[in-house]
Amino acid sequence: MTATATSTPPPAATKVSGGKGGLTRLSFPVVLLIVAGALLALSAVRAITGAQDVTSAGQISAALAMAVPIGLAGLGGLWAERAGVVNIGLEGMMILGTFFGAWAGWQTNPWLGVLAGVIGGALGGLLHAVATVTFGVDHIISGIAINILALGFTTYFAKLWFNTGEAAAKGGSPKQSPPSDDITSVTIPGLSDWLHSIEKHHWFFVSDVAGVLGGLVTNVSLLTVLAAVLFAVTFFVLWKTSFGLRLRSCGENPIAAESLGVNVYRYKYIAVIISGGMAGLGGAFLSLVTSHIYNEGQTGGRGYIGLAAMIFGNWRPGGLAMGAGLFGFADALQLRNGGESVHALLLLLVVVLALLAVWKLYRKSFVQGAVSAVIAAAVLVWYLATDTVPTEFVSATPYIVTLLVLSLSAQRLRMPKADGMRYRKGQGK
């Protein structure tokens, strides 16, 4: 991303990402090997430290619930940035989704609340599109303004709508809404119990796999299933259809796209409105699935973390899903078992940093390799000298993971070439 909007056109010779001139993409078997390797590392950490919750079904189920709003926010950012619009306003659009989702959810039913949350976020996206596409406002400034406006709007109307009459009688207050009904959750009968029985044996790797799979088939909200479908739909629409090709061309070279008859403004508007709707859906998930109420400050920066997950995923749905899962795992870990589990993961961090140091030294990046080795040694000393992690550090775990992952993945990123650039119709004439 770039915080500077400029009228300078991108280079004329561009290639829509995913072509031969881009970065090498990981094949599906390689992705499976990476996932298996990560799970094997977690199994080793569990066996060595005795932190059984690291790969338990409860941990995975909680991680999935934490990952969905982050993933949906990141998916919103992906739609906008593939069309060339930076959407820092995802946090504000999520806030609108939490508010309108809860407001409609407690009065009617949770599915209408979901629809209201999507509409609320889409309205925030529309405002961002008007500012950035039509009036050429700097994308970062517009996004930050939307975040501030959304917070002020929801704070004011929460006091007005949730603190009087029927809402107050049902548990509303100036900072929260009355509770809404649950959205249906599904469990695969038989399979869930069988996996749970294997998990209880604590066998190396086998029980860990059972715990992970058990968390994915037990008490899964239908909204989580919908989020997974949206990831697949996004990939198909953006990379397998002519509509998606035109939309992505607007983020790579809008001047060339316009010369081929693409209505660049229209595609940018569509992308940013969908972006807001995705973020609003993530907000509705927080207020209707995670807690069943709207709470002031409920998003907790997840819009920004979603943006980080999108960058980690290199502006692609598959990578974004992996990033959201990682951040959701860290978030759930600090909520469920606190210092003990986070302390166990310090050992995993030592291994990762040591391998990174070896790789950097092999590539003759001596400074980066030395820094990674020193940090690995410091973390190892910390792990050996302590039995737990301070509460203050535990609560910051998701944000530390965000910074760490972005720093490790920064060198392989390839953003859309015209991302964040101001574009005016007829600019290439």
Can you describe this structure?
- Residues 1-23 have low confidence and may be disordered.
- The radius of gyration is 22 Å and the shape is globular.
- The chain has a two-stranded antiparallel ribbon.
- 69% of the residues lie in helices and 1% in strands.
- By secondary structure, it is mostly helical.
Mean pLDDT over all positions:
87
Structural class, from helix and strand content? Answer: mainly alpha
Instruction: Please give the share of residues in helix.
Output: 55-70%
Shape: globular
Radius of gyration from the alpha-carbon trace, in angstroms: 22 Å
The low-pLDDT segments are: 1-23
Summarize the helices and strands and which ones pair or pack:
Layout: H1 28-49, H2 57-82, H3 90-107, H4 110-134, H5 139-161, H6 165-169, E1 185-186, H7 191-199, H8 206-217, E2 220-221, H9 222-240, H10 242-252, H11 254-259, H12 264-290, H13 302-312, H14 317-336, H15 338-362, H16 366-385, H17 391-395, H18 397-409
Antiparallel strand pairs: 1-2
Helix pairs in contact: 1-15, 2-8, 2-9, 2-12, 2-13, 2-14, 3-4, 3-5, 3-12, 3-13, 4-5, 4-12, 7-8, 9-10, 13-14, 13-18, 14-15, 14-18, 15-16
List keywords for this structure.
429 residues; mainly alpha; 2 strands; disordered N terminus
Short description:
This protein is mostly helical and 429 residues long.
